[in-house]
Amino acid sequence: MTIVRELLAFMVENKKLWMLPVIAIMLLLGGLMFLAKGSALAPLIYTIF
Questions:
Q1: Exposed/middle/buried for 1, CB within 10 Å: 0-12, 13-18, 19+?
Q2: Which domain of life is it from (predicted)?
């Protein structure tokens, strides 16, 4: 949790709050690819990216 706290403090201090949606989307896509790794959706997801 320390890394998350430091990242949020950096974004607030340097007025980089626009990075928050970018990081959230990257985490969601990474989670989707991790969950679909062994399923039938894997070929579909990997062709999209």
A1: exposed
A2: Bacteria
